[in-house]
User: Fold this.
Amino acid sequence: MSRLIVLSNRVKIPDSSPMAGGLAVALQDVLMGKSVVWMGWNSKIVDTLDDCSFACDSYKLSGSKHIALIDDDTQQADTTITYMTTALTTEQYQQFYCGFANNVLWPLMHEQTDLIQQAPEDYAGYQAVNALFARQLKKILRPDDVIWVHDYHFLSLAYHCRQLGITNRIGLFLHIPFVSLACWKQLDKSPELIEHLAHYDVLGTQTQRDKTNCLAVLQHYLQDRFLEHNYLRASLMNASCRAHHAFNAPKSLAAQLMLRLDHCLQHRLTINAYPIGINVARIQNQVLDLSLKSAKHAQRKDNIKPASQQIIAVDRIDYSKGLPERFSAYRAFLQQYPMYQNQLKLLQVACPSRLDLPVYKQLHDDVRQVVNDINQQFSVNEDTLDAFMANEGESNTAKAHWEAITYSEKVLDHQTLMTTFWQSDVGWVNSLKDGMNLVAKEYIAAQNPDNPGVLVLSCYAGAAEQMQAAVIVDPHQPSSIMQGLKTALEMPLVERKRRYQILLKGLQQDNLHVWQQDFLDDLYDNKSYHTNSEYPDSIQMSDS
Assistant:
């Protein structure tokens, strides 16, 4: 039986701790019902390491304990996932993870090229870890296994696999953006890395823009290796997918490149956008009790937003998330619209990240400081507080102690987070650059259909390509953010419902199951393709 081998930088072995990050949640959901080996780093750092250091643990996950990915009554089979994890040495952690992955590739892919710190030893360490995982794969692979690699930590994995004689199909899905050629030209090792990428069988991006960038970059660096290049389109969705969805919308145009590589004189590479979705049914189930309670009390209160409103923002503390820009615009908003003071609260859940890197430590300190400054700026002095309480009475004590920003660095479990989304009037995603941003999608899925909140979404988040019914803002323009917030906070119920219904329908159609199915169909080479005559038969080669 063919196994699916999943490789990601971090592996979340089931336990009682919260799952940090959308990737861990998404992968655990899509692996249900398959024969799976999940390989990656266990987050431990040790002094020494060898190729025999991979630990193996098997967990049986019951499908009955997981909500179906699609809106039907299908029960998923029990699944045994074998987790193969390894620690990293201090040197590997510094060179592979901190060094090349997060001091070079991450800023590169988020168009922060001024933050790139290139060091030969870091690149060597990155290649060494990619080769380490390739050797481990070589030990366990069966002829019909397929390998699904996740994210920028393993751009070179397929190359090292081919060097070892591995012929299994290997696909890479990038959860982060794929930037333009102009950015790639600023990286010394770009020619070699792009050649390594060509050894995959499938390259997946989040958005059409990312796919276009990927094609242009490959075209530039691999000109002498191109044999044939066509735009192709899947003829039909597969039967199982059609059975669960009442739509047969045209899928993204795939590009198939025929390349001459050292391991194969005619290597076929498929490149396409596979926008990651979410498990809508799972989230709706998590807030079901709240929805039932709301419906029970609907006759006793109007379904309109109260005077006091809450905005929620959930981010890792990362320079790509636009936190300083958010706080600056929020401060200006409260100044320009003082009627929202003592009425509006921003709940910021901010998870510290990569604090071993100086740029992240500085950002973490700056975020804390600006939150404190804003809360101090809009705090009520003692004389004003006494006068306020005398006029308003004891019942308004909470309003008198209002904080502009409620700040938390606690990682919330998924259900608690979805409940908080349900209770919030506005969800605010302010990314300067994002692959997708699942927070935007989860916020909509968690809303009360009878009284939904409004999503304020950065135009630079990958999700904006699919979620145009959100209030779209430019995080680099404070006036755009302020107008977006005002629109969201004042939006009538009928308009909130209209936008919510559009967004929810899109989430249900392009859900987590569809993402998984589309990518794996290409990885298993199950799709029937034909050249689309309405589009150019070839990718125009550039002279640049």
Summary: Residues 62-76, 233-250, 299-305, 530-544 have pLDDT under 50 and may be disordered. The chain is about 40% helix and 20% strand. The first helix runs from residue 22 to 30. The two ends are 46 Å apart (CA to CA).
